[in-house]
Design goal:
Protein name: Beta-glucuronidase
Largest sheet: 8 strands, parallel, barrel
Radius of gyration: 25 Å
Oligomer: single chain
Family: Belongs to the glycosyl hydrolase 2 family.
Helix content: 10-25%
Number of strands: 32
Distance between the termini: 65 Å
Bound molecules: (2S,3S,4S,5R)-3,4,5-trihydroxy-6-oxo-oxane-2-carboxylic acid
CATH architecture of the largest domain: Alpha-Beta Barrel
Catalytic activity: a beta-D-glucuronoside + H2O = D-glucuronate + an alcohol
GO molecular function: beta-glucuronidase activity; carbohydrate binding; signaling receptor binding
Shape: globular
Number of helices: 12
Keywords: Glycoprotein, Glycosidase, Hydrolase, Lysosome, Signal
Structural class: alpha+beta
Length: 652
């Protein structure tokens, strides 16, 4: 049956997955004196395989020749990056489950194909969910998981023939199974009095639409054949001196010289080093501070790495520049410290989601979102419920927006999703995530999951292992997962550094009874703190509001009700933040698309902005609160007397 074949095709593929301990780095493809980059954004040929078993593309080997009629049948023009779901007018394609095929040809500069000292790499920012890649009909890569980059060295392929172009074919399967991340199940509807033969649907336990496709930039880039493969930077502070510990890995040769320079924002070299690892000392360092915590937040140095190798043909160099923020992060039993000062998270949970493009990366949307965060006075967000684009993380570094970086471990509900296979994959995903995001100063904590059934018996071992592995990968950051289990049954909570708890008081229970929020919320906090003596973040709270729907006294779904829920939460948060509550993140920044259910009105409407990024009443309420919090908790070291009063937009 079609569904079984779809799931089977994915499952088969997953078993070939790589083992633990990733090989190599995943540096962002930046241009430099030794590296070129060619973006493959634009229109690609696209075809969904609607055949009953979804495997016609493999049976007919669509990767062997160009994807066009008469060979493989009709194609569509599909924009990249974008989800494929909402671009067209075809309802069947919107909800399609199975393999889709993308293809495009890329012209290559002559030097890339003729200079054998050049390495040509194909890099895919995100392909949701399982992807297989061919170049000129040759299999070059396979990857599981939709939110992290992967790449293939295609030098040999493009340097072996007379062609100055290459044909890239990518098959992507969006099927989710119990051991994928996020997990899902294919449900077979076998009652033929109700469903046609072979009918199946994709079932999931998370609250967002399973958008699919090539969601982020696809690029070709070059490096020399001996190249800087990875850089690992951690920072610490000793009195006024910033310490930058670096480790660089090189591929292609064992005989090389490495020089590193650290430059400040004015371009002055403030420290120099040589060799693959070392420590740079920066006297009177400018620290990386979060937005609204300092008059000059988000200070970034540049680590300039120069690799030199002597070859028979002469000397060859590779250059890479990495932005570096010097800062420290620490957790006490009731505080989160950045550079030794208490930090209060006042921010949002987001989604990568918008009209038409779905989860597709889009610069105007991204800048609008950052402008809204700055307007709101938000100093933090969580990448609910999967890793966001690398360009998002770069902007967080540049603007001082603190990030809780979350894995796609959402919807882990069934006991099968705690299997060894699931755990193995989850460990790998954490490796990929840490490898990609470890150098971002904005990232202050890893979140391994959202709202798992952490009260189930296997959850104890699962989260113990997962959190220990993440800490081993990155001892410099705290680790958490976000829970909605009860404080006395949660088997994962003993292993987290910070308790992140979600609650929807007077929304998913006690409908309309705003008067119980204060009591229930105070009880929630007290129970967790008494049990664990760890700082707590209210990692989600909120209510749906359909923009423009008003009712006073407040009724559910009106803008007034959303505001009232927030106000009730804030009364308790204002007491508890004096003790051990270290943050509040509203659910959600903007309305977003979900599966169709009777609880969702064309998506989840808990945004304080609409999906088109227009403010609801709650946005103004939060804005006033966040700027007030910034005034109270902001700190100016030079003035020596906290609190440092930031300029409130209300007095401009
Ligand atoms: C939650 C989930 C989030 C949902 C939200 C809601 O607890 O973490 O993914 O969208 O509640 O609105 O129900």
């Amino acid at each position: 049956m079609a569904g079984r074949a779809v799931a089977g095709a994915v499952l088969g593929a997953l078993l070939w997955g790589c083992g633990l301990a990733l090989q190599g780095g995943m540096l962002y493809p930046r241009e430099s004196a030794s590296r070129e980059r060619k973006d493959l954004d634009g229109l690609w040929k696209f075809r969904a395989d609607f055949s009953e078993n979804r495997l016609r593309g493999f049976e007919q080997q669509w990767y062997r020749s160009p994807l066009r009629e008469p060979q493989s049948g009709p194609t569509l023009d599909m924009p990249v990056p974008s989800s494929f779901n909402d671009v067209g007018q075809d309802g069947q394609l919107r909800g399609f489950v199975g393999w889709v095929w993308y293809e495009r040809e890329a012209m290559l500069p002559q030097r890339w194909t003729q200079d054998l000292n050049t390495r040509v790499v194909l890099r895919i920012g995100s392909a949701h969910y399982y992807a297989i890649v061919w170049v000129n009909g040759v299999h070059v890569a396979e990857h599981e998981g939709g939110h992290l980059p992967f790449e293939a060295d295609i030098s040999k392929l493009v340097q072996s023939g007379p062609l100055s172009f290459c044909r890239i074919t990518i098959a992507i399967n969006n099927t989710l199974a119990p051991h994928t991340l996020p997990p899902g199940t294919i449900l077979y509807r076998t009652d033929t009095s109700m469903y046609p033969n072979g009918y199946f649907v994709q079932d999931t336990s998370f609250d967002f639409f399973n958008y699919a496709g090539l969601h982020r930039p696809v690029v070709l880039y070059t490096t020399p054949t001996t190249y800087i493969d990875d850089i690992d930077v951690t920072t610490s502070v000793d009195q006024n001196t910033g310490l930058v510990h670096y480790q660089i890995s090189i591929q292609g040769s064992e005989h090389f010289q490495l020089e590193v320079h650290l430059q400040d924002e004015e371009g002055n070299i403030v420290a120099r080093g040589t060799g693959g690892r070392g420590q740079l000392q920066v006297p009177n360092a400018h620290l990386w501070w979060p937005y609204l915590m300092h008059e000059h937040p988000a200070y970034l140095y540049s680590l300039e790495v120069r690799l030199t190798v002597q070859t028979a043909a002469g000397s060859m160099s590779d250059f890479y520049t990495l932005p570096v923020g010097i800062r420290t992060v620490a957790v006490t039993k009731n505080q989160f410290l950045i550079n030794g000062k208490p930090f209060y998270f006042h921010g949002v949970n987001k989604h990568e989601d918008s009209d038409i493009r779905g989860r597709g990366f889009d610069w105007p949307l991204l800048m609008k979102d950052f402008n809204l965060l700055l307007w709101l006075g938000a100093n933090a967000f969580r990448t609910s419920h999967y890793p966001y684009a690398e360009e998002v993380m770069q902007l967080c570094d540049q603007y001082g927006i603190v990030v809780i970086d979350e894995s796609p471990g959402v919807g882990i509900k069934l006991s099968q999703s705690y299997s060894n296979q699931s755990l193995q994959h989850h460990l790998e995903v954490m490796e990929e995530l840490v490898r990609r995001d470890k150098n971002h100063p904005a990232v202050v904590m890893w979140s391994v999951a959202n709202e798992p059934t952490s009260f189930l018996e296997p959850a104890g071992y699962y989260f113990k292992t997962l959190i220990a592995h993440t800490k081993a990968l990155d001892p410099s950051r705290p680790v958490t997962f976000v829970t909605n289990s009860k404080y006395d049954t949660d088997l994962g909570a003993p292993y987290v550094d910070v308790i992140c708890v979600n609650s929807y008081l007077s929304w998913y229970h006690d409908y309309g009874h705003l008067e119980v929020i204060q009591l229930q919320l105070a009880t929630q906090f007290e129970n967790w703190y008494r049990t664990y003596q760890k700082p707590i973040i209210q990692s989600e709270y909120g209510a749906d509001a359909i923009t423009g729907l008003h009712h006073d006294p407040p009724l559910m779904f009106s803008e007034e009700y959303q505001k009232s829920v927030l106000e009730q939460y804030h009364l308790v948060l204002d007491q508890k933040r004096k003790e051990y509550v270290i943050g509040e993140l509203i659910w959600n920044f903007a309305d977003f698309m979900t599966d169709q259910t009777p609880q969702r009105v064309i998506g989840n409407k808990k945004g304080i902005f609409t999906r088109q990024r227009q403010p609801k009443g709650a946005a103004f309420l939060l804005r006033e609160r966040y700027w007030k919090l910034a005034n109270e908790t902001g700190y100016h070291p030079a003035a020596g007397k906290p609190p440092y009063l930031v300029k409130s937009p209300f007095t401009w």
